[in-house]
Write a structure and sequence with these properties.
With about 400 residues, the chain is an alpha/beta fold. The protein has helices at about 55-65, 80-85, 90-95, 105-115, 180-190, 195-205, 230-240, 260-275, 290-295, 315-325, 345-355, 375-385; strands spanning about 10-15, 15-20, 25, 30, 35, 40, 45-50, 75, 100, 120-125, 130, 135-140, 150-155, 160-165, 215, 220-225, 245-255, 280, 300-310, 310, 330-340, 355-360, 365-370. It is built from twelve helices and 23 strands. Bound molecules: flavin mononucleotide and fe (ii) ion (2 copies).
């Protein structure tokens, strides 16, 4: 067991560190991921969630070792997404007297995943309800849409442990020993970024709890004693408000033959010369989820794309689609388009941006016809000026 998920001798880690996984949830490039689960050994025994199908074998071994011949009384189902629920059916079969505890929404959904009769075994709890295990006492904190509607967190009151479901999680295998901050933002903006208001509601509830550590379903436990918890809470406060964390211009670009790219790199240099912090990203090389993160982090963005079959070159279209469904908002955005006979990428990008909330599109759109030329400099200089904060 990795020391970063150690909680205490009676709250034992039984999760799975998936070091080999390269793509999480069929879309996010990761260097592994952990599916965390703990079992609370007390007068009564409670298991906190299960793990992904990929880790069930290891999980059941860990569980058997941790139980030392005893039987679990409760399975706390905080989140039904299959990366945490794959073991529920088998667990329920193995321990017919074990109760399943979750929100009413969880109770309504659980039968979709497992063709089993949970009636008489599923205990629906309400916000603030408690479940005493002996020394440990779990208080349930509902967290709808962080990251599914049935989600709840569980606060072990006497010990100050917040089992935070997907909240405060991160990508990366535990074995890599990466800092939470390396992928905490990449994870947040892509997994829960859409639900800022719901994250804020949970943060507000958490303020009244004396939290010593947060134990998320992915990544290390975050502790108050070393500042790790405060760091993550501070970031979540900014991120969930859709306020930028960084000052600067993020410039993602989608170029087929490289001329848009050349123009963008020149423009980026000009922005830097004008005193701005700039981050460029080639959307044909980087995963769109990386661009989603940067778009949310920076306070300004300039998007650049070639025209493609009367449309936006798809890597940029994909980014804009992601930003829209992730609730991207409150930003100033400049546009650069390229085309050889009938450039329309700019107009189409503008239309998508205007369908988002509180986006200020910088006019005019900069158009290059195939290759940037000295006669285009004036347009670019104007865009540099407009992007100053
Ligand atoms: C498959 C394909 C479709 C294209 N469709 C259009 C188009 O509809 N309108 C247009 O003006 N240019 C179109 N172009 C031309 C490119 O947008 C143009 O050459 C641009 O300068 C390419 O920039 P790049 O060097 O950054 O890839 C198309 C190019 C390709 C390869
Ligand atoms: Fe999830
Ligand atoms: Fe998850």
């Amino acid at each position: 067991m990795n020391s970063r998920v150690f909680i205490s001798d009676d709250v034992k880690y039984i999760g799975f560190d998936d070091e080999k996984l390269t793509i999480f949830e069929s879309q996010y490039p990761v260097e592994g991921i952990s599916y965390n689960s703990w079992v609370i050994m007390d007068e009564k025994i409670a298991i906190m969630d299960t793990v992904d199908e990929r880790g069930t074998e290891a999980y059941f071994k860990n569980l058997e070792n941790a139980l030392e011949g005893r039987k679990p009384d409760y399975l706390i189902v905080q989140h039904l997404e299959p990366d945490h629920s794959a073991g529920i059916g088998k667990l329920a079969e193995m321990y017919p007297d074990m109760k399943l505890v979750g929100t009413a929404a969880c109770g309504r959904m659980i039968g979709q995943f497992f063709d089993m009769d949970f009636s008489g075994r599923f205990q629906a709890v309400n916000e603030g309800d408690t479940l005493s295990l002996g020394k440990h006492n779990l208080q349930f904190v509902f967290a709808p849409m962080v990251h599914w509607p049935e989600v709840m967190m569980s606060f072990d009151v006497p010990f100050g442990i917040l089992f935070s479901a997907d909240g405060f999680g991160t990508f990366g295998a535990l074995a890599n020993n990466e800092e939470w901050s390396k992928d905490g933002g990449h994870y947040y903006f892509n997994i829960v970024g859409k639900y800022g208001a719901q994250v804020q509601a949970v943060l507000k509830k958490a303020e009244s709890l004396e939290i010593k550590m947060a134990a998320p379903l992915h990544g290390p436990v975050l502790k108050a004693e070393d500042g790790g918890l405060a760091e993550a809470v501070g970031k979540y406060k900014i991120w969930s408000s859709y306020e930028p964390e960084l000052k600067g211009v993020f410039i993602p670009y989608a170029s087929i033959h490289g001329n848009t790219k050349k123009a963008v790199l020149e423009f980026a240099k000009e922005c830097e010369e004008a005193g701005m912090t700039v981050k460029t990203m080639d959307l044909t090389e980087e995963d769109v989820s990386e661009a989603v993160e940067q778009a949310f982090l920076y306070d300004r963005m300039v998007i650049a794309a070639a025209t493609y079959d009367g449309e936006i070159f798809p890597p940029m279209n994909d980014l804009l689609h992601h930003l829209k469904i992730k609730n991207f908002q409150k930003r100033k955005v400049g546009i650069i388009e390229n085309g050889s006979w009938a450039p329309v990428a700019g107009k189409k990008m503008k239309e998508i941006l205007e369908s988002m909330k509180d986006i200020t599109v910088v006019e005019p759109i900069v158009t290059i016809k195939s290759v940037r030329k000295p006669s285009d400099d004036e347009m670019f200089t104007k865009l540099v000026e407009s992007m100053k904060d």
